Amino acid sequence: MNKKTAEKVANTLKAIAHPVRLRIIECLENDEKCVNKIVECVGGKQSITSQQLNMMKDKGVLACRRDGVKVYYRIANPNVIKLLHCIGSHCKNK
Length: 94
What we know:
3-stranded antiparallel beta sheet; 62% helix; 15% strand; globular
């Protein structure tokens, strides 16, 4: 792995390496959801969830679209799901 690729990988891992962000990704695994549904799914304050969503969108982990007043988020890179399944499987086996 060259230096540039290693930096991109590290930035992606940093972008998802938080319990709330991991739960958001899990919530969005099968389909896109509006912010209110994501807040319900992860259980927390909307302001904190919105901050986490925006950070992951800025890092390219999530994408979003606006429909009227609602904003819908989805996984931008499905490889993130594969990575989390792999790591989750490893952690369950320990």
